[in-house]
Design brief:
Blueprint (H helix, E strand, L loop, with lengths): L2 E5 L6 H13 L3 E5 L7 H17 L5 H12 L5 H6 L4 H4 L18 H8 L21
Parallel strand pairs: 1-2
Length: about 140
C-alpha cells in the first residue's frame, strides 16, 4: 500500500510529524493526514464495502468471485473486496463492522449474518487458509 494515514495527537511533536512524513516519502509512500476518528479515513469505507459484499453473497445475489471481478474490472481496483478481506490478520480485522470503534447504533455498521458464521467457523481468510473462497496461506506466516 502506498498510503500511510498520519494521525497527529495532541501531544505529538512537530519533529515527530516531520520524521514520519519524511520516512513515508523516502520509502515511496504517500502520507495523508486524518483526524483521530475511528478507523481514520479508509477503514470505515472498507467496512461498509465488506458488509455490502457479504450481504450480496448471503442473499444469493452474486458470488465472491463475481463481486471481486466486478470491482477489479468495473472500478479498476487491483484486488476485489473478498481478496482484501482474505488478507485479514485477526478476527477483529476480518469482522470490522463489529469492532468496538463503530457505533453499534448505526445500522450501516451492523455486521452481515454471514460474518458471524465465518468467525465461528474460523474462516478468516489467509490466516486460516479458508475464507469466502479457498485461500492460500501467506508465505510469511
Amino acid at each position: 500500500m502506498r498510503l500511510v494515514e498520519v494521525i497527529v495527537g495532541r501531544e505529538t511533536s512537530d519533529e515527530t510529524v516531520k520524521k514520519t512524513v519524511d520516512l513515508c516519502r523516502d520509502s515511496g509512500r504517500h502520507p495523508l493526514w486524518s483526524k483521530d476518528i475511528p478507523g481514520f479515513i479508509v477503514k470505515p469505507f472498507l467496512c461498509l464495502l465488506y458488509n455490502e459484499a457479504a450481504n450480496m453473497v448471503e442473499n444469493g445475489l452474486a458470488s465472491p468471485e463475481d463481486i471481486d471481478t466486478a470491482l477489479k474490472l468495473g472500478c479498476n481496483w487491483p484486488m476485489g473486496v473478498f481478496e482484501i478481506m482474505g488478507h485479514g490478520r485477526s478476527r477483529r480485522g476480518f469482522f470490522c463492522p463489529r469492532s468496538d470503534v463503530w457505533d453499534d447504533h448505526e445500522e450501516r455498521y451492523k455486521p452481515s449474518p454471514i460474518f458471524r458464521t465465518m468467525v465461528k467457523e474460523n474462516r478468516l481468510g489467509r490466516k486460516t487458509g479458508r475464507g469466502f473462497t479457498k485461500e492460500t496461506k501467506n508465505e510469511r506466516e
